[in-house]
Amino acid sequence: MLTSKRKAFLMDALRRDGQLVAKTLCAELAVSEDTIRRDLREMARDGLLVRVHGGALPLSPALGDFAARSLIAPSDKVAIGRAAARLVQPGQVVFIDGGTTSAQVVRHLPADLKATIVTHSPSIAVELVAHPNIEVIMLGGRLFRHSVVGVGAATIEAIGKVRADLYLMGVSSVHPKAGLSTGDFEEACVKRALCHAAAETIVLASPEKLATASPYQIVELGEIGGIVALASTAAALTAPYKKMGITVYPA
């Protein structure tokens, strides 16, 4: 089989099964494991999938920059943001991530809410200017323009000084086995620090992020308490998380 046809077969199998297992593919295609590994390495380099031990997983479509992500399923983000905003209680200290879905969270917070929002996103802080009863604490650091958030040692040090009640986390990917992941190493480090500094972490997950992976793991699923997902999300996509004891909040 020609390399191009073999890679097309692999992409079809990935879309159908949600994962690729190298040993199974070797037998199915009658080629060596080295050949499959080379194919997967080249496909990962071309941005078609994410390699994991023993095979590959679908690559998240939510790895574009801030402007590109704002065009992906905007109505889904509104619904998820509205549902997540209802989880913020008066008097809480809440970490709110950067990103297009997080922007919808703050837009749906009640006008009279009294709470403290801590964020490393200047765009989230600006959204909160119109909320006179919300104290806004901005975390410093180097601006990561791709996601319009602060990253680096200064950001992580500042996070370590806060003990939040809740962290509303935006991610690129959520997967039952690969956990939570994103496309930048430093951003993953910041999200991990936010998760560890909060009493509870709830993930904002539109359908295109479920059952996908990105290059850099944030935390495993055992470290989160809930996921906000569309009520219309296929049961097969949310069932693995419910089985793990993770609350799935419908949006």
From TrEMBL:
Domain of life of the organism encoding this protein: Bacteria
Any Pfam family hit: HTH_DeoR
Positions in coiled-coil regions: none
InterPro entries hit by this protein: Carb_Metab_HTH_regulators, DeoR-like_C, DeoR_HTH, NagB/RpiA_transferase-like, Tscrpt_reg_HTH_DeoR_CS, WH_DNA-bd_sf
Domain named HTH deoR-type: residues: 3-58
Keywords associated with the record: DNA-binding, Repressor, Transcription, Transcription regulation
SMART domains for this protein: DeoRC, HTH_DEOR
Keyword presence, Magnesium: no
GO molecular function, one term: DNA binding
Name used for this protein in its record: DeoR/GlpR family DNA-binding transcription regulator
Organism: Massilia soli
